[in-house]
Amino acid sequence: MNRTEFVTATAIILFLFFCLGWFACWLWMRLSRVSRADIGEIDRMAQELHEAEEARDRAVSYIETREAELTNRLTQAEAELDAAMDGLRLARRETEELRTRIGR
């Protein structure tokens, strides 16, 4: 095999591999092409995901608002309880003082 035959054989082999690669790429693109129905399904799923995210954001916002409200009510209830306990303590002290005065 001389040099010219070798170059020719190599060129033919490379061309055949090029054609095989091109055919494989064309076949892959043909088989993996997305149909219009699939695009519509993807759009519908994207819309549902967007709506679900908005619902989640609204729920988180509601929970945060409700938590702040309940924390505020708990703080107020604790303050009222402390005031009631102070008043009760004062009343008991006054009662004990009156008992000791009456007892004398």
In short:
The chain has 104 residues and is mainly α.
Set out the fold topology:
Elements (H helix, E strand, L loop, with lengths): L2 H29 L4 H68 L1
Keywords: Coiled coil, Membrane, Transmembrane, Transmembrane helix
Tertiary shape: rod-shaped
Number of domains: 2
Percentage of residues in helical conformation: over 70%
The total strand number stands at: 0
| Major β-sheet profile | none
The residue-averaged pLDDT reads 94
- Rg result: 42 Å
User: What is the terminal-to-terminal distance?
Assistant: 138 Å
Helix/strand order, N-terminal first: HH
What is the number of helical segments per DSSP (H or I, 4+ residues)? 2
Decide which structural class fits the backbone. Answer: mainly alpha
Uncertain runs with pLDDT below 50, 5 residues or more? none
Report the β-strand fraction as a percent range: under 5%
Coiled coil: 67-94
Transmembrane segments: 6-29
Keywords: Coiled coil, Membrane, Transmembrane, Transmembrane helix
Give your account of this protein's structure.
By secondary structure, the protein is mostly helical. The chain has two domains: about 1-35; about 35-104. It is built from two helices and no strands. It has helices at about 5-30, 35-104. It is rod-shaped and about 140 Å long. The termini are far apart.
